[in-house]
Protein 1
Amino acid sequence: MDKTSEKERINVIIESIMKVARGDYSAQIQLSGKNDELDSIAVGLNMMIDDLKAGTVGLGYANNRIEEILDIIQRVARGDYATACEISGKNDIFDALGMGINMMIDDIRNGIEELHRANEELRASNEELQATEEELRSANEELQASEEELRATNEELQAANEELRETQEQLIRSERLAAIGQLAGGVGHELRNPLGAIKNAVYYIKGKVAKSELGQKEPRLMEFLDIMDEEVNSSNKIINDLLGFSRTGKPSVSPTRINRVIEDTLTRMTIPENIKLTRKLDADLPEVNIDPDQIQQVLVNIITNAVQAMPEGGKLTIGAREKDKFLEVEVTDTGCGIPQEAMDKIFDPLFTTRAKGIGLGLAVCKSIIDRHEGNIAVKSKVGEGATFTIKLPLKAE
Ligand SMILES: Nc1ncnc2c1ncn2[C@@H]1O[C@H](COP(=O)(O)OP(=O)(O)OP(=O)(O)O)[C@@H](O)[C@H]1O
Ligand SMILES: [Mg+2]
């Protein structure tokens, strides 16, 4: 056996070991067939290289499977639950891992699907809830509307009731007025003749006394006769008022210029100097069908009241105008005014707040204006004055 070939064989063995050390498992040492120690070493080395190769291949395989499984896990993490680990059928640990992960993916998918379903159910029941809420809201609105209707009907009912009560009161009032009017008219009529007789007698006695000695000796006799004369005059005024108030039936009307009646009234009256009179009479007013004497009496009574309400002086304004098929006459003063509680009563007969008043003036006014189918109204503020408005209908010819 030559030494050189033995050395060569050893070199081959060392080279193979170096290759393996560099990771090259392709090297297989050729056997010499000598079955010597070097061949045994070569066999042993060849087996070791085989083992190492098999081990390295197994490692690569494991690496691949692990990468596959990692990829699947990452997909699942991104929300892809349709993915699954491939099962090789080798029944190794990676198959077991893959199957376990697949079961987990199934579980997650099922859980998520269930969550979706629950979410859907929740959304549906939420929608139902919203619908019910909407229904409830509209039912509530309907309820509110019917409540409002009920309230309105109730208010209407109350208003109708109030109107009824007012009409009833007016009826009672006008019946009472008619009764008083009848009585007043009767009494007035009965007193008219005796008063006329007294007035004549006083006139006669005054004439006699003026010429007699008695008249010279007793100057107070004449004074008393004058007082009697004045009192008879004021009694006559009361009787005239009573008769004016009780007069029934239609007044004797004729087409009349209202400004004329106002001027005649003012000429008849004496307005105190501390009262400033202003006329606001529209020119060219149409003629109105009235009883001029009666309307004059109305104006006298209203202007007298106005003057009496301004003992310290003030302003008196008389206006006349056409408005909505009516002739309107307005008398305004700046006197004491009428308190609210008296407003309803001032047109009642015998209502007075004046010491020397009888309370017939405005009752007569109302009675005359009513008979003219007109209207009389008052507005007032205590301390500021009062405005009386008379409306007389303009008949469309
Ligand atoms: N212009 C006015 N300003 C303030 N109060 C007034 C006015 N006109 C009327 N009144 C009130 O209305 C009441 C009734 O007036 P009315 O003319 O009917 O009777 P009178 O003036 O009291 O008595 P008479 O029978 O002498 O007229 C008065 O007593 C007064 O309280
Ligand atoms: Mg009066």
Note: The chain is about 65% helix and 10% strand.
Protein 2
Amino acid sequence: MENMVRVVDFHTHILPGVDDGAQSMEHSLEIVRRGVQDGIDTFVLTPHIRGDSDLVRLPHIRDRFSQLQERCRLEKIPAELVLGAEVLVFPSLPEHAEKYMHFTLGGPEKYILIELPFTQMPLYADHVLNSLMVKDFTPVLAHPERYLYLHGKLDLIEDWVDKGLKLQINTGSLNGRYGLRIKWFANKLVKKKLAHFFGSDVHSVHDYVPSFRETMKNASKVLGKQRCATA
Ligand SMILES: [Fe+2]
């Protein structure tokens, strides 16, 4: 049965030369190869989009996406690639939400990966996330465990999830890559069944630690395989 479960890396910076992730096509291909070896079937490609001015890069991002798909096909790398983005929250995002449709993952859920600043929660964040949900988007909050200011706000996280928001946990967080506090909170979210998607947040060949499938396997014992493995 295990082979029937899709393993989805929901958060990656693999596209070559579009953000602070992979800087060449060869590096992109090597990351995908390593991920496939690690048991990943599907990669959601989530380049950083930080403000409306980044929208002009959409044609470039799409070109890169097509080129990477084509190279994977030519080199017979059995990976499904899906184009998304990691969108940094900003106050007027809900009013501009339609422009960001390109970065949702398709389907009625309209999943869109949202990043918060690391230092402090902006006053407008709650309003923006709620407004997106009112507009029938499904915000997926990128690595909530890495925002230390959310560690004391489990009630707020649960309230967002009750309203429809999903959470994406970094597999590295569960393994202690970002320190013990983040490891503790990531595992707490899993135990509370508040983990919906997992991502490597990989930025380069060098930081691809081959533990994705193993980490998801462990989490699935707590969450149930279907909860954590499918996009
Ligand atoms: Fe990221």
Note: The longest strand covers residues 8-12.
